[in-house]
Amino acid sequence: MGMSSAWNNVGAAANALEKVAISNLFTQQPTRTELFMFHAGELLVDFSRQKIDAAALQALVALAKYSDVENQRNKMFSGEAINNTEDRPVLHVALRMNADESVVVSGKNVVPEIHATLQRMSYAAEHIASGAHSGATGKPIKHVVNIGIGGSDLGPAMAMRALIAYAATGVQAHFVSNVDPTDLAHVLAHLNPHETAFVVASKTFTTQETMANAHTAMKWLQTGMNVASVSNHYFAVTANIDAAVHFGVPMENIFPMWDWVGGRFSLGSAIGFSLMCSIGAQHFGDMLLGMREMDEHFCTAELQENVPVLLALVGIWNRNFLGCASQAVIPYLQELARFPAYLQQLEMESNGKRANRAGELVEHATSPVVWGEPGTNGQHAFFQLLHQGTDVIPVDFIGAARTTAAGLDEQSVREQHQKLMANMFAQASALAFGSPAPTDIPSAQGEHRVFPGNRPSTTIVFNELSPRVLGQLVALYEHKTFVQGCIWGVNSFDQWGVELGKVLAGDVLAHMANTSHDTTLDHSTRVLVEWFLKNS
Ligand code: F6P
Known about the structure:
Layout lengths: L2 H14 L5 H7 L3 H4 L1 E4 L2 E4 L7 H13 L2 H9 L26 E2 L2 E2 L1 H20 L12 E5 L6 H9 L9 E5 L4 H8 L7 E6 L6 H18 L8 E5 L2 H7 L6 E3 L16 H28 L6 H15 L4 E6 L7 H13 L17 E3 L11 H6 L6 E6 L9 H24 L23 E6 L4 H22 L10 H14 L10 H13 L1
Parallel strand pairs: 5-6, 5-7, 7-8, 8-9, 10-11, 10-12, 12-13
Antiparallel strand pairs: 1-2, 2-13, 3-4
Helix pairs in contact: 1-4, 4-12, 6-11, 7-11, 7-13, 11-16, 12-16, 13-16
6-O-phosphono-beta-D-fructofuranose binds next to loops.
């Protein structure tokens, strides 16, 4: 069987289920959850509320098989240049390998350098926390501000919020990403320059937003402390070491990035330094351990029990065979508030592509729109549409058996957490099974009171959101993204689609600065720029 007949077989399985509702699947097989629930690390993943049966799953697993997923996975782990449009290996998985493992890139094992960097990060983080690394005026550093955007922000910012209960060092991490000066101003308004260090996180060290914020922050330090040299308030994480040195970051404060780590896959690299400064090297190491555990599962579990593969396949099923253009991720954990935003970059920047690896137009739809907010908040905002809207939007529910909330009355915390989880389970059930209109209502309310159900969801649960569990969760979605890229036939590791906007922003800026009258700007842009210049 080839890839296209594997695809057709999934189509046939979808046709066979066209008139079958999720509730029918449960009627036919009341204990189906046992068949569709899988473990990976500490995660328990329930696919039984997907509109899927054993035949469909089998066809999907065959699709993964014939899409070269295993071969591509092995190539990724062994350092082959699977990022074909940039001719680079894809080795975020090496970031969490054990020190005695080896991946050779251009004749050199990269694992020792990764571990040497982790040691340097840990040394610096400890020295900041102990006060041994002080600021220009001799005061201990209490705040670390990560300046970065996209993958140089979303990972550590998401993880810092997720692991706030594990903040152990007394150093607080803050995140500034937007070129909008209110972002930096808002964060710095609460900080004291004598006690603040900046981590300029940028693989390229040329990103407009990051460099603008890094320069403005330097002026804030110089004016605030009335000193000219503030270099020991700066750390950098970059693949462009020369640019960081030129900016004024001391060599010993620069941590390397490598071109084989994509920004959106970089949380386990030194991009996580600000996070490490706050949670400590031990917890950071636990997060890497969790990632490694998911990597091991991904590499060793049979495809039909391989949770990242199954999550990817269910996504393909919903996107390509049930026609769902959007995917919601609803964590019932306030700490995971930034997880949907993190996944937006991970999945949409990776797989929001219209050309396949060979440079031809793809024949099938690729990444859905990924979005979400924590529950229960979402229930009081957009769940109306999830239950009764005209589009079916699959949901990933994420929840924990125990809360990390501390400092409040214990009994109340337990009760509130139980309410939280009751809501999560209830929402997944309501989406799947729906409900007819009550019989005793005014006829005008008829359809308004019907919950059609038959709306699919996956539920991911674990005991508690620890660094290790977060690592597993992150690697789960990384590998899901990779598998979907293999099946859609796209290169998940480039992002050419962000370039045009950057170039045009330069043209518009030049026009604003009046240095280029000979502009090719379109009429609408010119009129709006004139309006801005007149009113700003
Ligand atoms: O513009 C998109 C992007 O290149 C992302 O892929 C990346 O994570 C982000 O910008 C930041 O890039 P850098 O780390 O080079 O500043």
